[in-house]
Amino acid sequence: MLPLMRQAAGTHRWLQILTLVLTLCQVTRADQVSLPTGPAPIVVPSSNDWEGNDGPWSSFTIEIGTPAQSINVLISTASYQTWGVDPAGCTSTDPSTCPTSRGRFYNNSASTSWEPNEANITTDIYDLELESNLGYSGKGRFGFDDITLGYLGGGGPTLANQTVASIAAKDFYMGIFGVKPQASNFTSLTDPVPSFMQNLRAQSTIPSLSWAYTAGNQYRLNEVYGSLVLGGYDVSKFKPNNLTFNFGPEDDRELLVQLNSITSGDGTSLLEQPVPMFLDSTVPYIYLPEAACAVFESTFGLVWDAKTELYLLTNAQHTSLKAQNPTITFTLGSLTSVETVEIVLPYAAFDLTVSYPIVANESRYFPLKRANDSSQYTLGRTFFQEAYIIADYERRNFSVSECNWDASAVQNIVAILPPTTLPTPPSISSPSNSTQSISTVTSTHPPPIAAIAAGASGGALILAFSALMLILRQRRRKANGIKLSELEPPSNTNVNRASILKAELDGSSVNLTSPLHSNIHEVSGNSDLKSPFPSASHAVEIDSYGRKWPAPPSAVEIGESKNMMMQGEIYEMDAGEVAIEMSGIGSGRRRSRGGGLMSFVEGDDWDRVQMSPGGVREMGSPVSALVSPVSPVFRPR
């Protein structure tokens, strides 16, 4: 009877383990993964307005200065600065609607927290340089001021001492908010000024240097506003695919894709051969080779206007194209993958209007541009109406996905956590890309692609199967043990059982390999079954050789030794330069306020800030210098 009781107790213990494992499977399939907590992504609210002289486009509200001046801006995936339109940007010869059509003014002279850029002793006016390869030009008065995402009091973060330019040039008709995490250099490369994104990361206000963006449009679901997430993405906004792009080799053109083909709805090929294309939401147009533009002209009856350098549409052309309602499919690929992704644009995506000062009277136009060479090949904001872009600057990769137009979809924000780095195996060189890691999600939020879910679910199922095999094996062993004990003399029943007990799973681990990224491994080496998820301190990674390595130390914070930096992380400057930036002693920084960022205090999920007033510094250059072609100009690098 006693052996049978022992067998029942052992079986009960194994059934408990199996129940726990099956529960893990269910939790993983539901993507309810509990991971270490950290800063949440920032969802930047749209302004709920449609603006711009070449769209219209869904804009975003930010506030600059003290007292706060609310302006609407467009998102620039290629810029790392914030620009607002100066009052000099509208003159007496402009329409009365000029201030509102440009997103309202940012008047730096009315801000007590404004500090001019003193990198150069003669002027604080610099060439804008953004999109100069596309023929854009202009000047800006650069300085430093406080910036709030969204309306003040709306819960968005406020950072002090941020790079800001007031612009008057009409090439950039509205202000911009740059999401690229790259420093500005007003003097030399040894004195960089961190961008807004870099400062958010340095303050641990976002989980990683990453963003996700789609421009929105007016023709889907009775208007869909643009969506911008910093440090994560919105699962509900896109349809996942298997293609991940590595950053391009040029720092100013990282978001580079291979455009394999363009086809119309009837199968007509609109592109002779694949070309590299730069993703850039700063501009509205799609810049293609002239040969491709010629095919568009013949296919859709477009006529090039040499004066405006646009494909202006007459009412008759617009009516005809609207009746045809053609679709245009852009097939993107990568030189390192056989996977492709298709982004389909209906004619409505190209049905835009252009107005003053590009043309005297508002007109419809087709946002296609003739590119002079490959440096101009660009997929602009028109493309972003149907594409959802996720860029991860710490892993140096990005994805392009088709937007999801499900009206019932509910916002589901997922954080992109910093990558982990494996130590180099002793005596063996690491293979290239062996330390890559896919984006990780926060608890209760499903990932955008099945990589994490499928990997975790598969690993859990393997664990469940292994546990079941162990149960069956243990039962067989115990059954044999019972038979043997019946033949043994009673004196042997007092053998010390503790000497033969061991860990139930014997410390085995599960390799959770993503089906979408074959060279990526995420694994937990903690076999403690008290919790279905390992603690961060027990994390284990598996390299491509199948060896386990302990998790790396936490990410290096500003001011720490360079020797502690992890492989795969992106750092704009070494620790010494970071210290200069935070202390504000660099030649291009503000000095009167001590430099650095506003200090965050306990508050809501956004983190509150402590405001400190500052004095206004006068500069010799008049505001009119922004629009004068003979103004002394220095070029920020």
TrEMBL record:
Q: Which PROSITE patterns match?
A: PEPTIDASE_A1
Q: Which keywords belong to this entry?
A: Hydrolase, Membrane, Protease, Signal, Transmembrane, Transmembrane helix
State one molecular function term (GO).
Answer: aspartic-type endopeptidase activity
Membrane-spanning intervals of the chain: 449-472
Database matches in Pfam families: Asp
The answer to whether the entry has keyword Hydrolase is yes
InterPro entries to which the protein is assigned, alphabetical: Aspartic_peptidase_A1 (IPR001461), Pepsin-like_dom (IPR034164), PEPTIDASE_A1 (IPR033121), Peptidase_aspartic_dom_sf (IPR021109)
Span of the signal peptide: 1-30
**Claim: Transport is one of the keywords in the record:** no
Which GO BP terms apply?
Answer: proteolysis
Instruction: Tell me where in this chain the Peptidase A1 domain is found.
Output: 58-401
UniProt-listed CDD domains: pepsin_like (cd05471)
What GO CC annotations are associated with the protein?
fungal-type vacuole
Q: Which family does it belong to?
A: Belongs to the peptidase A1 family.
PANTHER family, sorted: BETA-SITE APP-CLEAVING ENZYME, ISOFORM A-RELATED (PTHR47966)
Q: What is this protein called?
A: Acid protease
